[in-house]
Amino acid sequence: MKKVIGLLLLLFVFSKTHAQEVIETEISSKHLNKIQKVKIFIPETYFDDHLAFPIAVVLNSDALFDTYVATSKLFAKNDKAPSQIIVGISQEFKEFNYLNYGFDNYSGLPTQISSRTFGFIKNDLLQFLQENFRISNFKTIIGDKLTANFANYFMFEDQPVFNAYISLNPQFAVHMPENLKDYSKALKNEEYYYYLSRTNDSEELFKNKISDANRYLSNSENNVFNYRFDNFDKVSELTSIPQGIASALEHVFTGYSGIDKREYENKVAYLSPLAKIEYLRYKYENILYLFGEEKEIRVTDFYAIEDSFHESENSNYLEDLGEFALDTHPKEPMGDYYIGRFYEMDMDYRKAAIHYKKGYVKIPSDSPESRLFYENIARVSTLTKEKT
């Protein structure tokens, strides 16, 4: 109870000053049978209007925590990822690393001692976070070398504990590549993300195992399993850490960030016009469900899907796109433009002019869009006269 009170006091101080972003606390673990120290990064936005926050559990905290925090802040600032609560598990004695995260050399599974670490993370740590923070449904775990191998065991549960797994230059156990192939195939119901990286600094044995795992995972046909691999063959292991974390965050949070070329080609391009509209609805409903953030649909995401609507065979759906845009962004001119374009392609130039004018008055006079809308109005007005 005293530890919880201490944590709440630290949170209170943080909320008043926003100067201390990282707090340190201790968790009483029934699995480890000891007090475990952890570091917790709390984003400044925690005390804003967010409903809940995704969490990231960082193994090998001494090597990875600060870099992961700095990169996550950069991504959140640039709207490429949600703000995260980040938990680093401290390792008091490095010589105990293999005891806490090791594997049996014959089965490739956790040892009796490392199973206790597994229980601590799955039960004690996550329960502590649930009780003391507003946690969303999305959880990430990250490790490097031995801890990267250990993180995979959480995916082998009937209901995987984490949604995203970041594996930097892992020292895979025996059978791990094959196990990853089998368990990644069995994933269902939720979207899962896996990131794997390798450097030339790795021992030959582990480089071969990483190559095997990459070959298996690259050929996965499971639609809910999202995979990315990076081979940092020209940089040192140390340099590969920030590069790997940045690439991993870009991959893991593709469902949060705006629609880019890769997402469009892989998930949107083949959809019908109405299905593209529904994809936008689903994307932002999923952001709320997974990341706890009620986010307005980005204007750029409308631009990302609009091209196919202007094709003659799909122009009948421009009105649907326009109405959806007006529902979500009533003060933006794009909804009026889509509907105006719909009527223009249907040769109802009078109604097209009405909607172009509605959009025109929403635009500052010094904006380049103002001239374009004026040209639209002038064009359909001329066509109206010619038609009469």
What does the model show?
The structure is a single chain. The protein is an alpha/beta fold and 388 residues long. 36% of the residues are buried. The chain has an 8-stranded mixed beta sheet with strand order 1-2-4-3-5-6-7-8, with helices on both faces. The protein is built from 15 helices and 8 strands. Helix 12 packs antiparallel against helix 13 (334-345) and helix 14 (349-360) runs antiparallel to helix 15 (368-387). It folds into 2 domains: 2-252, Rossmann fold, CATH 3.40.50; 273-387, Alpha Horseshoe (Serine Threonine Protein Phosphatase 5, Tetratricopeptide repeat), CATH 1.25.40.
Count of individual domains: 2
Outline = elongated
By DSSP (H or I, 4+ residues per run), the number of helices equals: 15
The CATH topology assignment of the largest domain is Rossmann fold
Distance between termini? 82 Å
Architecture (CATH level 2) name of the largest domain? 3-Layer(aba) Sandwich
The CATH homologous superfamily of the largest domain is called Alpha/Beta hydrolase fold, catalytic domain
Please outline the major beta sheet.
8 strands, mixed
Compute the average pLDDT. Answer: 90
How much helix, percentage-wise, in residues? 40-55%
Q: Strand order of the main beta sheet, please?
A: 1-2-4-3-5-6-7-8
Order of helices and strands: HEEEHEHHEHEHEHEHHHHHHHH
| Contiguous runs where pLDDT drops below 50 for at least 5 residues | 12-19
The level 1 CATH classification of the largest domain is Alpha Beta
Number of strands: 8
Could you tell me the strand content as a percent range? 5-15%
Question: If you compute it from the alpha carbons, what radius of gyration comes out, rounded to the nearest whole angstrom?
Answer: 25 Å
Structural class: alpha/beta
